[in-house]
Request: fold
Amino acid sequence: MTVAISVKGLSKKFRLKHQAGGAAYTTFRDGLTDSVKRLGLRLIGHASRSSASVTDEEFWALRDVSFDIQQGEKVGVIGRNGAGKSTLLKLISRIFEPTSGRIQIQGRVASLLEVGTGFHPELTGRENIFFNGAILGMTRAEITRRFDEIVAFAEVEKFLDTPVKYFSSGMYVRLGFAVAAHLEPEILIVDEILAVGDARFQNKCLGKLQDIGRSGRTVMFVSHNMSSILQFTNRTILLQAGQVLLDGNSEIGVREYLRINEDAAKASNLETRVPWFKINSLIFDQKNTEIGFNKPLRLKLDVRLERGLDNVVLMMGIVNSIGARIITAKTSIPNLASGEHTINLEIPEHRLIPGCYFVSLTISVRQEVLFAKDQVILIELLVDNIDDPLLMPHVERGKDRLGSYCSIRASW
Reply:
């Protein structure tokens, strides 16, 4: 099989400047202004009055990364923020030059790495479609043949002859993805930028990526949505601190990603509103980190009371990635004696589709709120069987749960 992308010993180093006694970083404009000021002082015979010393630090965004991607493969790239994912894609897209190593590419590459990639702000949407096509090496006739399909997919017909500098971020993304996906590149590279679009457009894009994958073209796909990775890719490269931690089956890669991100399932800033009620920890049940569809949701709450309480009310909310509350669950504990307690909270049944969700928690006694925090824990629900069409993300199951109440089982 033909190798579409070959990466050997790839490393990328950046130089970070630190100014003692000054800001942690400066913009290009600040740097240019400071240079002009120093030049002016030298011209009039004055030494620079800046007492701040500038030091350089080497930062390796990638170090000795190697892999081959075969033609037609759909490969996910995952890792925590700062792991080197975007740097890797920019190197493959020829936006950055590597510090060392080499990249060999067989085929025409289209990239969607950030809002407005490849667009000229002064050109209209129509002009940018032809401009991007020309960059990809397509003829005008080839672009014209796909033009109507691109415009229909992007849903920007009314603004087609408006300069794209006036586009919203959502319009930018829709048009950018439509151009990248429909101009028939042999290799398509997509970063997390799809998260800017709304939920309907994200699902539309994932459907298009599926079509591209089935057509035999190569796709590299960066996402923090592990359900999308499992649904779309069969191979995943997991990066950590600029190096390849794992390269293999997507299911194994996702499990390892979740394992090294267990801190995301632990709550922070658990300060309560009264001094005599303390929360020591709130943890999503680690044995259920890779939770499947319709499996119980469990949290473990460790508290310390300086006095006994009666009728403690716990209310848990589950909010999806676009901020809509899906489930509100409530329970009461008749009495809690003073001392330390571990309270196990469980929602035994749910109809949440795979994806990322935030959990909020409120604890109150007789209308007095002891603790309240939104987005206290992030949880990830995975697909049990990705071949089951009923579990695909575009299926709008769970809508009937919006704003609904269910019960929590509590034990202590």
About this structure: The CA atoms of residues 119 and 128 lie 6 Å apart. The chain has eight helices and 18 strands.
